[in-house]
Amino acid sequence: MTVKNISTRAQICGRSANCHGGHSAVEQASYIGRVKMYSEYDGHTYYPKYSEDLVHSEVMLPPNAPSEFTDPARLWNSVELSEKQNNAQLARTFRVELPNDWSYELAIEVMKDFVQRNFVDKGMCAEFAIHDSENKKSGQHNLHSHIMLTLRSLDEKGHWMPKQKKIYILDENGDRVPLIDKKTGIQKVDRQNRKQWKCSTVPTNDWGNKDNVKIWRKDLVDTINSVNEKIGITDQFWEHRSFREQGLDILPEIHLGEKASAMERAGIHTIRGDINRDIRARNAVIENARAAYDEAKELLSTIASIPVDIVKKIVNEILEIIRMVAERNRNRLKLPVVGKKYISKIFNKSSLQDPVFLEKFVGMMGWSTFDDIKTYMAETEKKYSAINDTRIRFQKRSDYLQKLIDAYKLYEPYIKYNKELWSKTGREFKQYKKQHMEELTKYDIYRERLKDLITEPDKKIQISKWKEEYENIQNYFVTSKDELNGLVTGMAVSEVLLYNKDYLKLMLENESHKKRDLHMERGIRDL
């Protein structure tokens, strides 16, 4: 099992030069949400530099927040306008790394739960976005999330509250302590001749506690490890402690920053990137290769059994496009980040860029034209929808049965007391009822609760029937999951192939334009 040390970065976005998380909340929100935003505070319009890596963005609010804050522009402009100081702190930013093997749907679900529990439930307004960039040179994906958090609490009416409040210092008798002028030895007064008292300021919330970041890191890592275990990724263990806390003499990598990251993604080496490469070389002892996890492993193993030579003998337009794109894109196909329903459900997305895997898949499916793919997608969409609809319907039924079974567990221990009561007569009946009044009362309470949950008209308690039906539904979930995963893989491959068909067309047009410009340039030189 490899150990993965999670990479996180918590910073303050503020107007002071000491704030390293950005100097405008609107600008920062524009960056993580990949949307154009106008700042009412400084009058600037901020444009996102990238958009193709955005997987998801969302604003999450506590119950007392104004509904208009669901619009990130309204939220962060309100934050900006509530701060009057030119060195004000505006927001807290938190960047977290996520497992590249996760599907986009899973990443969104986990991050919504993480943000809700750690921030929104505490009263913060939060915006989070998930990005998945790809290193053009290595093909390595970088699934990560940006979170922006408000610093001020909201009152019951949804108005921003002060960040701090003044409290008076009290003596042992609970009286206020006068503020003494050292020169005169008497109590100070203000310009209105009001007496001054010793006081201090305290935060109105505990969100700025320095221990919070460690708590958030640990919670996220515990969540990642728990989710990985549930979905079958057992060869990775994520660690929240720093190298120093683990007792390791290892250097952490430095933060690249927006400009250096963009240059590195374009294959251009930077000073910061070189520093990190040196650090990675020194820390090679703990750098372990990630084992790819494939949700549809049974299907992929079948595909892998087909010899590549046999597949390559099949002459068709699909294989030709796979090879032409791979030749122009460092031996891998392009992978769209957003807008594709089935790609977002795949865990090991790197296999969808592997030309060898795609060629084998095309051979196994017997496709020769893109019309074959479109026909397959139309038929498979119906199958997928039918299975998925059934699973949704069964899930509702399963949840209902689970509630009944759980309620019966509370009711069951007291059934014997009721049976025993009605087996007695006369004085024994009265004595038993008096001795077991508590148990018999709980019997009535839990029986009534159980009856209230039953939606069937007869209101019969049929625990054996419920358990049998619940077990059958769980068995269906297991058997249908494999079929559903196979359909998802086929549809995701289809989406990739259709996307790369259009992508190749654009590449060929660009190549044609470059050749034409080159010929024109040479012709001008000859003249």
Characterise the protein shown here.
The protein is α+β, with helices and mostly antiparallel strands and 527 residues long. 48% of the residues lie in helices and 12% in strands. The protein is built from 15 helices and 11 strands. It has helices at 25-33, 72-82, 104-118, 212-231, 258-265, 271-282, 297-304, 308-312, 317-328, 355-365, 370-411, 415-422, 426-435, 437-453, 463-526, and strands spanning 2-5, 8-14, 37-38, 45-46, 54-60, 89-97, 126-134, 141-150, 164-168, 199-203, 236-239. It has a 5-stranded antiparallel beta sheet with strand order 2-6-8-7-5, sandwiched between helices. A two-stranded parallel ribbon has the order 1-11. A hairpin with a 6-residue loop joins strand 3 and strand 4. Helix 1 runs antiparallel to helix 2, helix 9 (317-328) packs antiparallel against helix 10 and helix 11 (370-411) runs antiparallel to helix 14 (437-453). It is flat, with a radius of gyration of 32 Å. Residues 285-296 and 310-315 have low confidence and may be disordered.
